[in-house]
Amino acid sequence: MEVPKMLWLKQHLPDAFARVISGGKFLDLPDYLTYRATDCTDDVRSLCTVVCKWNYDANGEGTGVGFDRNFLGSVGFADNELSDYTIGARVAAPGEPVAGGLGPKAAADFGLLAGTALAVGMIDAHAGGIGCLGAKLNAYSELEELARARGVPPTIALNERLKEMASAAGTSVAVLARDVHVTPDALGNRSPLADPLMRAAVVGLGLSATLDDLAFLYLAAVQALAYQTRHIIEAMEEAGHPPITSVIACGGLSKNVLYVSTHADVLGRTIYLPVQDEAVLLGAAILGTVAAGAHPSIAVAMERMSAVGTTVRPGGGEGGGDVELHERKYRVFRKMTEDQRAYRNIMAGG
């Protein structure tokens, strides 16, 4: 992700690019926060950020080449443009302590003590995984499914409207969007197609523009996101990944009960939600406890600090189940995706 951004900067804002490579630094956000937290004295890069966003080769056996200079040259960077000073010479695993901890200025800004333990960070979504994947899927947590509506933030107005319409029609919520189909790739498809040219599409729009029409389109979009998740899981399993039997969800959308229950219905798998609904913050805290020596490893800290809060089973939530409907709509979803790529080929003269 960051290599094309730097290349764009070089091509479209060459003066700004020149200023950076003449004494500045390119930093991913987590690494920039660490840099600032040390009063700009330690520019250590997180293994998480450089592998995921910088094409950094970190072979687990220690045979990786790091920043691949051949690759960087092949896409348009000169040998002297991305020095170790500019893109980083030291890479450390998330959770490793940063020497010296929190700098005096940063400590004063936050009202903390200078030297407070500081961990090498990671990308926010990955921190969310750290914050929830240590939860044990035991019988007690499944019992909490009986009270899943307690203490949950109120559902949004469209969710309530969909339930009202379904009740009036004597049907499930899922059926309301049976004739509206969506592919959600407005900014390209990251997984499983890795196709940046994909775009969103909607089939089933009419000229009416009422609140109910908005609700139908919203529901179809929620279903499309679940179909895309199923597509990713199927691609992983087809590639040899062991069968995925359950899913742990975190992040803002995990607070939307319709989104979660629709995923359970579409995937045919139980969805587990962590007891701590701010899993990204918990993941960052877990890294901090390891850096401070409170836990011997990230794995141990994950197990001790996270737990399952709510369980959503297929057919047991607001999505309404309806396996046959989702099977048909998933076939349409896959066909729409294939057709869009075929249309692109036609327009390219193929």
Automatic annotation (TrEMBL):
Ranges where the Carbohydrate kinase FGGY C-terminal domain occurs = 143-292
| Single Gene Ontology MF annotation | D-ribulokinase activity
Q: Which domain of life is it from?
A: Eukaryota
Give a Gene Ontology cellular component term annotated to this protein. cytoplasm
| GO BP annotations listed | pentose metabolic process
Does the record bear Phosphoprotein in its keywords? Answer: no
**Keywords per UniProt:** Kinase, Transferase
**InterPro entries named among the record's database cross-references:** ATPase_NBD, FGGY_C
Q: Does the keyword Nucleotide-binding apply?
A: no
**Gene3D superfamilies from the xrefs?**
1.20.58.2240, 3.30.420.40
Q: Which PANTHER family match?
A: FGGY CARBOHYDRATE KINASE DOMAIN-CONTAINING PROTEIN, RIBULOKINASE
Return the protein name. Fggy-family pentulose kinase
Which lineage is the organism of this entry classified under, starting from the top rank? Eukaryota, Haptista, Haptophyta, Prymnesiophyceae, Prymnesiales
